[in-house]
């Protein structure tokens, strides 16, 4: 596998988040707002199966890109993504690395990022959504869809990342 | 105390929290322009996105086409009925246009708030965060786009330009919550009633047209257009139809709920509108 596999994977996922929202922008059943968080899933899996340094660096770079290009609120994701990578790496000191823990942590990460962005929007008065509405309309459907997606991709994603990590270790002369 | 300061991780966390707050404060400030770094990053990402966007749209377009085919027969019947009215309307518009031109020449008044130049743009992305509904389009300051310009689709007004970089721009939809999202508008009737579009009611999916005089009589179904008095927007862009009129909290003015004519979802192409009267003034200044 190519040296640039990881960076191109993250870039493509990053670009697809925006495109997918644009192509399927209707709320589901006219009510539910789905927010793609595929980047976060890749980030958590990467931290676990490739390494903490990679996770935090990619988290920082793509968090910054997310802020500059999409939300125009600088800092929010730049701070959140590396922090999540860091916490996941710390939690791995006590837990086993496998597809199940990775899936679990991805879901936890999505949930916490959703609440975190909601809190920021409330503080800067960027939304008038009440907490119960947020919970029903945004939080639950997003979490539900991502749980399904994670269960589908967890194992192949883990295998790909592990294989890539090993290749990199072999090829590096140090 | 010294132990606290020795904890390196805690200090890093605190410093980054401070940077976070400072950065958010910086980006919330009403900036007239993005920094060159942001512009550069944005254009690079938009360039890559426009490459990925094409095949993705083709795939999505295929499913849409299949869906369209199922409704073709009924739609065709409806459109045929419309077509006959359309011919009548067109001849009427044509004669009115000519008369308008003639009268204008008589008055020697050449420019009007209504005239505008259209810049066609393709939507290549949407804010995936979905807190603020914004679109990314593939035309920027190099093509003449400026901040705060009106953005329309053939159905009607959808929003305004929020920020510009050389080869891309971000469009803020009318449904986005922003206190600075004010648009001067009027309700068409025997006597035009002026007001300001301020805000969006998410539950009713309607725009709020505020500051309507308390004695104005407005009926449901009347059409709302931009007035062109607010500065950058041209006159006569269709916004929507009045749904309901209520008195405001003090009873001094009325608030109308306006159902937007344009669809805020599923937007592929937009038109960015540049008012002609401004261009004339710019030339005179130079």
From TrEMBL, chain A:
It is found in: Cell membrane. GO terms for biological process: regulation of cell shape. It is a multi-pass membrane protein. The chain crosses the membrane at residues 6-26, 38-62, 68-88, 100-119, 139-157. This is Rod shape-determining protein MreD. Keywords: Cell membrane, Cell shape, Membrane, Transmembrane, Transmembrane helix. The keyword Transmembrane helix applies. Its main location: membrane. It comes from the Bacteria. One of its GO terms (cellular component) is plasma membrane. Belongs to the MreD family.
TrEMBL record, chain B:
Keywords: Cell shape, Coiled coil. Residues 79-120 form a coiled coil. Residues 123-274 form the Rod shape-determining protein MreC beta-barrel core domain. GO terms for biological process: regulation of cell shape. One of its GO terms (cellular component) is plasma membrane. It comes from Anoxybacillus pushchinoensis. This is Cell shape-determining protein MreC. Involved in formation and maintenance of cell shape. The lineage of its organism: Bacteria, Bacillati, Bacillota, Bacilli, Bacillales. Belongs to the MreC family.
